[in-house]
C-alpha cells in the first residue's frame, strides 16, 4: 500500500512540475545610458538583475498571471502583467523612459571626494565586465585606449602606462582600492601593478583634478572601481575563468567568490595567475625577453548597512617582467617558443596594499574616511641572478577624510588628504639611482555645488604642502660615489613645495537631451624623487641620469568645454580643451658622456608647455530590436615646449576607434563585433624623437552567453586582435627608440563561469 502512496505522490509532484513555465525578457533604455535594471515579481518576493546583455529570466513559475516591476536609476518605473503557461517561455520586453529630470539625476563617481555625475569635469565611465575585455596582456590600459583622449605608453607587454590628453607618467593619478598609487617614481619603464582582477568599471577624469586628488592629477585621474557583487549576494556566488593569448602563449586563470551574510556582514576573495612567453611581432619575429608573469590575490570584508558601511581590503601582487634590451633586433634573446623562465635582465616587483574605507550617514551630514598603506618592493636584476642591480623599497601611507552636508540648493564638501612616503635603497645593490628619501604631503580642500533649475555650478579650492628629505649619508652611497645636487657636506637635502589650486565650472541643461559643460581648473605636480635627486645609471638603459633639486612644482591651468546630445538611438559627446603648464619637467640628452661609466648623460629640465586638442564620441543604435550598435571615437592632442619652440615629447598621434556590435539569438545572448583602431602618422616629433608611421589595427570577435538554471551562466568568447598581423611601432612605445615592434596577431580565447 505504501508503494502505491509513494507512486501517487511522485506522479503528483511530476504533474505539478510540468505545470511550471518561465519568463524571459530584455530591458532597453531610451537614451542608451542605463547600465542595469532590477526586475521584481510583485507580491512574490522574487527579483533579479539584468545581465551584461540587459536580459533577465525567472524559471519554474507556476501557471498564472504575474506583475513585473522594472526599476533603474534615472528612469520611470514600469509595470507589466505577464501570463505564464505550463512548459512555455513567456517573453516580454521593457523600454524605460528617462524621468523628466534625468539630466539632474545624481550618481556618485567617487565617494571619497564627493564627485558626482553632474560635475563639469569631463569624465568617461568604462565597463570592464564584458567577457571580451577580460585578461588582455596589456592589462586595464588595453581597454582604456579605446576612450577618446586616452592613450598608453608601452614597455613591452605587461607594462602600459596611461596618458590623458598628452600628459602621462606621474601626471596621471591612479586610484585603486581608494589608494592613490605612488609606486612609479623611478621612470617610464615601471608599471602600476594593477590588472582587471575584481574590477567592475573605470572612470576616467580628463584634465586637471588636483583640487580633489592632489599632486599627480595634473593630467587626469584613473578611478578603478571594485566589483562589489558580494554586497548584494545572499548566497555564495562568484565566477572563475581562464584566458589564452596566442601571441605570447599566455594563459591566465582567475576566480572570485563572495557573499553577504547575516547582520549585513559581507566577504569577498579574488585570485589570478597569468604567465606569458615572449611575444611575436607582425613579421613573425619573437621579441626575446618580453615574457612576464603575475600572481594576484585580493580579500575584502565589511559591513553594508543603509546608514553605515565599511570595507577592509588587502591586495597582493607579484610580477616578474622581462626587460627587452636595445639590441634585441640584432642580438635576439629569444629562446624556445614556449620558454617562460625569466632571463636576464628582468624586474621583480611585489606590491601589498591594505586599505580601509568607511561611510557614515549622520542624518544632517555624511562623513567618509579612507586609510591605506602600500608596500612596494622593486628589484632590477641585470647581470647575475644572485645580484640586484637596483633595489628599492617604498612604504606609502595615504589618507582621505571628507564631510559633506546640504543647505538647500548648496552641497558643501570639506576634505583633508595626504600621504607619508618613505623610499629606501635595498642593501647590497650594484647601482644607486636615487638616495634614500621621504616626504610628507597634506592638503585641505573645499568643494561647493550649487543646483538651481537647469544650472549646476561647482567650485573648489585647495592648499597643499609637501616637504621632502633626501639622505645620501649612508656608506653605500659614499662607496658608490653618489652625490646629491650641490654636493652638501651633510649629504642631506630638504625641499618644500606648496601652493593653491582651484576649479570653477558650470553644467547647463539645455533641454531633456542636451547638456553643456564648461570648466576652468588648475593642477599641480610636485617633482618626483627621480626628477629631484637622480645621479647614476638606470639599469636596463644606457643613460646616466641627473636630477635637479631646485625644481619648482609643475602648475597648470586648463579650460575645458563639453557638449553632449542624448537621443533615443543617438548619442554625441564633443570636447575641446586648452592648457598651459608652467615648470613642465622633461628629460633630455645633454650630448655629454659620463667619464667613469662612458654612458650618455641625460638631465631633467623645466620649461613652459602648452597643450590643446579635442575628442569626439558618437554612438548609434540601429534596428527595431536595438541589436546593432555603432561607436566612433576620435581624439587629437598637440603639445608645445614654449621655451624651445618645439613639440613636446610623448604626444600621442591622432587616433580613431570604430566598433560595430551585433547581438542576436535568444535574448541577444550572442554578440558579433569588429573594432578598427586607426593611428595617424606622428609628424610632430619632440626633442630626440623621430617621426613615426601610422598604422591600422582590426579586431573581430564573437561572444556567447549560456544559461544554466536561474542564476548560473557560462560566457565564452573568441577574439582575433590585429587580424591582418600588422607590424608597427607605436609612437608612445618606450621601445620606439630601438625600433622594436609591438605584438602581432593574437587569438584570445576566454571562458568564464558565473554562479
UniProtKB/TrEMBL annotation:
> Where is the signal peptide, in residue numbers?
1-18
Q: How does it sit in the membrane?
A: Multi-pass membrane protein
Specify the domain of life of the species encoding this protein: Bacteria
What keyword terms does UniProt attach to this protein?
Answer: Cell outer membrane, Membrane, Receptor, Signal, TonB box, Transmembrane, Transmembrane beta strand, Transport
Residue ranges of every copy of the TonB-dependent receptor plug domain listed in the record: 117-221
Q: Please give the chief subcellular localization of this protein.
A: membrane
State the InterPro entries in the record. Beta-barrel_TonB (IPR000531), Beta-barrel_TonB_sf (IPR036942), CarboxyPept-like_regulatory (IPR008969), Plug_dom (IPR012910), Plug_dom_sf (IPR037066), TonB-dep_rcpt-like (IPR039426)
| Localization, UniProt | Cell outer membrane
- Which Pfam families does the UniProt record give? CarbopepD_reg_2, Plug, TonB_dep_Rec_b-barrel
- Which residues does the UniProt record annotate as the domain TonB-dependent receptor-like beta-barrel? 253-723
Q: Of which family is this protein a member? A: Belongs to the TonB-dependent receptor family.
Give the protein name, as stated in the record: TonB-dependent receptor
**What is the protein's species of origin?**
Psychroflexus longus
Amino acid at each position: 500500500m505504501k508503494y502505491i502512496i509513494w507512486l501517487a505522490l511522485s506522479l503528483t509532484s511530476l504533474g505539478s512540475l510540468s505545470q511550471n513555465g518561465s519568463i524571459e525578457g530584455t530591458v532597453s533604455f531610451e537614451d542608451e545610458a542605463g547600465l542595469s535594471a532590477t526586475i521584481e515579481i510583485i507580491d512574490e518576493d522574487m527579483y533579479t538583475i539584468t545581465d551584461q546583455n540587459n536580459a533577465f529570466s525567472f524559471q519554474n513559475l507556476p501557471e498564472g498571471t504575474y506583475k513585473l516591476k522594472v526599476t533603474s536609476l534615472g528612469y520611470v518605473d514600469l509595470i507589466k502583467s505577464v501570463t505564464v503557461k505550463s512548459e512555455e517561455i513567456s517573453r516580454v520586453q521593457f523600454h524605460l523612459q528617462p524621468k523628466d529630470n534625468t539630466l539632474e539625476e545624481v550618481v556618485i563617481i567617487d565617494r571619497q571626494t564627493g564627485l558626482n555625475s553632474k560635475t563639469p569635469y569631463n569624465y568617461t565611465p568604462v565597463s570592464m565586465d564584458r567577457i571580451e575585455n577580460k585578461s588582455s596582456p596589456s592589462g586595464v590600459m588595453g581597454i582604456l585606449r579605446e576612450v577618446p583622449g586616452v592613450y598608453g605608453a608601452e614597455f613591452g607587454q605587461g607594462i602600459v602606462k596611461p596618458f590623458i590628453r598628452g600628459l602621462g607618467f606621474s601626471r596621471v593619478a591612479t586610484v585603486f582600492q581608494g589608494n592613490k598609487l605612488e609606486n612609479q617614481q623611478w621612470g617610464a619603464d615601471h608599471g602600476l601593478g594593477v590588472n582587471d582582477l575584481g574590477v567592475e568599471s573605470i572612470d576616467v577624469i580628463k584634465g586637471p583634478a588636483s583640487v580633489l586628488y592632489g599632486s599627480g592629477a595634473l593630467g587626469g585621474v584613473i578611478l578603478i572601481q571594485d566589483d562589489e557583487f558580494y554586497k548584494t549576494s545572499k548566497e555564495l556566488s562568484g565566477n572563475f575563468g581562464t584566458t589564452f593569448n596566442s601571441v605570447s602563449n599566455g594563459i591566465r586563470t582567475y576566480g572570485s567568490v563572495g557573499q553577504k551574510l547575516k547582520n549585513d556582514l559581507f566577504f569577498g576573495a579574488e585570485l589570478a595567475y597569468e604567465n606569458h612567453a615572449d611575444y611575436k611581432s607582425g613579421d613573425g619575429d619573437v621579441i626575446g625577453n618580453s615574457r612576464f608573469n603575475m600572481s594576484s590575490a585580493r580579500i575584502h570584508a565589511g559591513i553594508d548597512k543603509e546608514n553605515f558601511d565599511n570595507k577592509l581590503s588587502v591586495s597582493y601582487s607579484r610580477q616578474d617582467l622581462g626587460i627587452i634590451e636595445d639590441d634585441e633586433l640584432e642580438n635576439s634573446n629569444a629562446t624556445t617558443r614556449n620558454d617562460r623562465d625569466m632571463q636576464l635582465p628582468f624586474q621583480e616587483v611585489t606590491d601589498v596594499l591594505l586599505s580601509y574605507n568607511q561611510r557614515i550617514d549622520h542624518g544632517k551630514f555624511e562623513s567618509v574616511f579612507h586609510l591605506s598603506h602600500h608596500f612596494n618592493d622593486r628589484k632590477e636584476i641585470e647581470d647575475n641572478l644572485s645580484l640586484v642591480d637596483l633595489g628599492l623599497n617604498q612604504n606609502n601611507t595615504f589618507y582621505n577624510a571628507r564631510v559633506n552636508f546640504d543647505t538647500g540648493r548648496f552641497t558643501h564638501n570639506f576634505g583633508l588628504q595626504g600621504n607619508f612616503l618613505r623610499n629606501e635603497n635595498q642593501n647590497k645593490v650594484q647601482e644607486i639611482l636615487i638616495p634614500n628619501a621621504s616626504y610628507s604631503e597634506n592638503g585641505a580642500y573645499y568643494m561647493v555645488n550649487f543646483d538651481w533649475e537647469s544650472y549646476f555650478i561647482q567650485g573648489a579650492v585647495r592648499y597643499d604642502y609637501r616637504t621632502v628629505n633626501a639622505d645620501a649619508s649612508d656608506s653605500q652611497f659614499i662607496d658608490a660615489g653618489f652625490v646629491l645636487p650641490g654636493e652638501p657636506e651633510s649629504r642631506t637635502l630638504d625641499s618644500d613645495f606648496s601652493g593653491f589650486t582651484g576649479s570653477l565650472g558650470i553644467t547647463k541643461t539645455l533641454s531633456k537631451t542636451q547638456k553643456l559643460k564648461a570648466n576652468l581648473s588648475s593642477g599641480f605636480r610636485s617633482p618626483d624623487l627621480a626628477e629631484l635627486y637622480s645621479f647614476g645609471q638606470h639599469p636596463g638603459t644606457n643613460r646616466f641620469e641627473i636630477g635637479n633639486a631646485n625644481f619648482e612644482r609643475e602648475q597648470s591651468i586648463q579650460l575645458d568645454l563639453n557638449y553632449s546630445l542624448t537621443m533615443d538611438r543617438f548619442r554625441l559627446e564633443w570636447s575641446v580643451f586648452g592648457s598651459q603648464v608652467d615648470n613642465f619637467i622633461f628629460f633630455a640628452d645633454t650630448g655629454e658622456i659620463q667619464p667613469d661609466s662612458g654612458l650618455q648623460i641625460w638631465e631633467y629640465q623645466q620649461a613652459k608647455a602648452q597643450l590643446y586638442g579635442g575628442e569626439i564620441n558618437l554612438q548609434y543604435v540601429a534596428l527595431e530590436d536595438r541589436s546593432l550598435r555603432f561607436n566612433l571615437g576620435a581624439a587629437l592632442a598637440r603639445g608645445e615646449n614654449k621655451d624651445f619652440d618645439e613639440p613636446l615629447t610623448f604626444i600621442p598621434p591622432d587616433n580613431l576607434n570604430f566598433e560595430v556590435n551585433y547581438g542576436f539569438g535568444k535574448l541577444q545572448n550572442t554578440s558579433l563585433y569588429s573594432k578598427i583602431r586607426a593611428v595617424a602618422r606622428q609628424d610632430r616629433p619632440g626633442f630626440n624623437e623621430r617621426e613615426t608611421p601610422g598604422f591600422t589595427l582590426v579586431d573581430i570577435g564573437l561572444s556567447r552567453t549560456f544559461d544554466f538554471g536561474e542564476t548560473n551562466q557560462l560566457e565564452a568568447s573568441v577574439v582575433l586582435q590585429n587580424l591582418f598581423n600588422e607590424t608597427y611601432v607605436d609612437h608612445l612605445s618606450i621601445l620606439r627608440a630601438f625600433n622594436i615592434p609591438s605584438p602581432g596577431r593574437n587569438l584570445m580565447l576566454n571562458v568564464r563561469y558565473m554562479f
